[in-house]
Protein 1
Amino acid sequence: MSNKVIVSVDVEDWYHGPTVISPRDEQTTIGHFLSTRQGIERAAKYVDICLEMLAAHDMKATFFWVAEYAKRHEHLLRRVAEQGHEIGCHGLAHYSKLDCATKAPVFGVGEFAARTEMAKHMLEDMTGTEVIGYRAPNAYFSGKMFDALEELGFRYDSSVSVNSIYNKTDSALKGVGTAPYYPARGELKPGDAKRRMLEFPWPYFDVGVAKLPSAGGPFLRTFGSALTIAGLHQSLRRGHAVFYFHPIDICKEDIPLPFSPSRPMMWLFKGDMVRRRIERVLSEFRGVSANFREVVDADPA
Ligand SMILES: [Zn+2]
């Protein structure tokens, strides 16, 4: 299989972000949050627009769903699956699995595995299809998580991002580029042996002095499509390249907590402007795209 741009959509709402809900604070768990703040959901109505955008470009994507969100919007989950898109797992409740500051695990491996297994089964029960792909919430990821996912029967993950701006893993990521690879046991650096499960790291645009993130998401929202397109073209020369966006990215309504001091740019750009940016990327790679399952089922690495 020639190198593809792998298109993915992370289905979550604005309040799943790490500055809003926290796994260790009962006052901000999702059930409490929703019961005390009515009418705050924003993302669900934009899932259909994402489907329209993909259909207009003849693309089949992978939709990584937060399982508790899928449970509350089951009709949408089913519609996505019925239109031929792959369903992947984006955690049970979108809690970061590593502490943002220290990179220490928030959950032990056993608790992580139990929660993820529950999420996988929820998505499989609702769609009747095996879920083989995982993306870590907020992209906080570790080698131990990778091993646990492999034990649960997943066949790939796409959470690792090598760039010059942040590293959300507990690993130095030495030797990791942008092409799919098999990590060493317990780590995220490349290993010697093939495994059941692959990692699809995110693309970057290497400008010589820095590697700029170009997988989409907040960098597409903030800096526009040119950087993302340049990084995807460059990464395609190294192997398959991953692109992602969120339904919430194209939300036109106000977001209840638009400003976070730790992430001041987070929702500065959204709505129709971002929709046009996503569409520019989709147009650029029309005809050379795939979803993860298609690549994993072919010749992935
Ligand atoms: Zn997410």
Protein 2
Amino acid sequence: MTKLIVVIEIAKGKITGITKECLTVAKKLSEDLGVDIEGVMLGHGINDLAVNATKYGIKKIYKVDDAQFAGINILYHTRTLEELVKQFSPPTIIMAGASLYGQEIIPRLAARFNSAIFASVTSLVLEGDNLVGIHPLFEEKLLGTMSADKNQMNFVTILGGNNPEAEIDESLSGEVTDFAPVISERDKRETFVEEKIAKVSVDITKAKLIIAGGRGVGGKEKFGIIHETAKTLGGEVGASRAAVDADWVPYDHEIGQTGKTITPDFYIGCGISGAIQHLVGMRNSKTIIAVNTDEEAPMLDVAHYAIIADLHEVLPELIKKL
Ligand SMILES: Cc1cc2nc3c(=O)[nH]c(=O)nc-3n(C[C@H](O)[C@H](O)[C@H](O)COP(=O)(O)OP(=O)(O)OC[C@H]3O[C@@H](n4cnc5c(N)ncnc54)[C@H](O)[C@@H]3O)c2cc1C
């Protein structure tokens, strides 16, 4: 029987959002395969977190709870996961989020097991005897399909921002079992020093409504209308890179290839042309509204609604109406 194991990533003492997205993909796959989801969690002082994680529908969690895992040392994590995975014979699927963590660990493991890897896929489903994953290519202009025999070892990273996060179900529970860390002298060639969490003023990836401004806003002071509209509508401020590069708004607000990927219920893009590098970060928003003076702007190709007008006329009117 296939083993389906999700590597549970922890940040700031919590299970990460990308892991929860992974669990959504794993849930559907577990139903199709007719198997339970299992998990592995590495850290220090993580017993309560592991017990809590079973409420996401994970039937068994292998917990590595050790002071040497208080910080993330990629070599320690890889080596210990390698020892754990060695216990399982194929078919086994090991899945993690395509975060910095997952992207370090999973390819190393796949190489150590000389196995297939589904790297940065947005989905993973069962089709006959194969696992099939979709991998966006060339800034999502193309969607590549990857396929591999389900009866072997398969390693997977799931790209964030494409699946809803799994939610806790208090009625669920599972087993938590300890697994001893394995660290060789060779793994000690890198030492974990300190984890510094970058100061983030806003997390636009979680917002339900984003009002984003671009070069068309016309200046730092003029960007005030974007902030005011966001406040009035109860949303967060987003921006194109042009607005960030001009220093009208901090980088935390940038949407796109070099910014954040967002999937809010509403995205309102004001004075943003819709360059591909911006679109890749927001085009999965549920409802897209464009406010632009140019009816030929590429943003209109992805927008559900468009207001062809000066944003400095539209937004004050909108605020007045609310
Ligand atoms: C490697 C690379 C990575 C990149 N990554 C990103 C990224 O992550 N995110 C990103 O956004 N960009 C990114 N870019 C930049 C991207 O290519 C565009 O240059 C940028 O998105 C343009 O920003 P903009 O739409 O605000 O400006 P513009 O393209 O100049 O568009 C301004 C728009 O405002 C409209 N407008 C003007 N005045 C008004 C008004 N008064 N009312 C309403 N509309 C008005 C105009 O009609 C126009 O459509 C990247 C580029 C490269 C090369």
